[in-house]
Amino acid sequence: MEPVTPKRIVASAIWHRETVLPAAPALVRLEDLLPRPGQERTVGVGGYAVSAEATLDLLWYPPYSEQNGWDDQPSEIELSQIVSGRVRRIQPLAATESAARSSDTDEVACKISIQQRVPLLSCVRALSRAPPAAALSMPTRMRYEHWRQAHWCGAAEIGGFIYLSALAGEANLELILKRRDHALSVLYEQRSYEAWFEGEIGHWQLDKSELEIIEKHLRNAVELRDGAAPYLVL
Q1: With the CA atoms of 46, 52, 54 and 59 taken in that order, what torsion angle do they form, in degrees rounded to the nearest 10?
Q2: What is the greatest pairwise CA distance in the chain?
Q3: pTM score, whole prediction
């Protein structure tokens, strides 16, 4: 059985800088916001070394969770997408705008020629069907020992999966998990610190120590609920 090959996801893409949402209770159609194959879109990418041109997989969030995070609007995980395409760096943000931001964000403006868009949970669901023999052990760089002392955790059930968000200092760990009998598999991992974001999708089995850490956080987690009223028409 071939192991699942992980895929790196650029989780810091900013798609909605120019999006103006109507005042409540007016609604906006999700379809009008979604990137479509064949389009060329401008995105800001922060905390990621974007080369002159490369084929990348970018995470697309709906506007509210792009600004506030999934932990403030967990239902938007189901609406999030993985957008693949040819990304071309065009220029840094204007000096006046970048000066207002932390110097370590290194946000740059890019053009993406969109080739494919797939719902994040569709990818996660396909990976969850892989047999246990195809799962990878967590590589050393992804060990969760640092998260043993997380000072806050929140969790939500989303589409048959478990979303867990943990804060340790200024660092944030977000996982999409699947429980199978007494085992937990990690299907998506996202780590962030200030403006630095890194995501990865795959299928990893937790060892005994890691399982103990994650299970403790799930037991202690607050139940996450949407912080904003519905504003999207599906």
Answers
A1: 20
A2: 54
A3: 0.87
Same domain for 131 and 113: no
Tell me: do 49 and 62 sit in the same domain: yes
Q: Which residue has the tokens 């005994």?
A: 208
Residue 59 lies in a domain: yes
CB of 103 within 8 A of CB of 47? no
Residues 193 and 208 in one domain: yes
Reported in sequence order, the residue ranges of 106-208 that DSSP labels E, i.e. its strands, are 108-119, 136-137, 152-158, 161-168, 171-180, 183-193, 196-205
Q: Are 198 and 190 in contact (CB under 8 A)?
A: yes
More confident residue, 133 or 27: 27
**Residue-number span of the structural domain to which 12 is assigned:** 7-122
Percent of the chain exceeding pLDDT 90 equals: 48
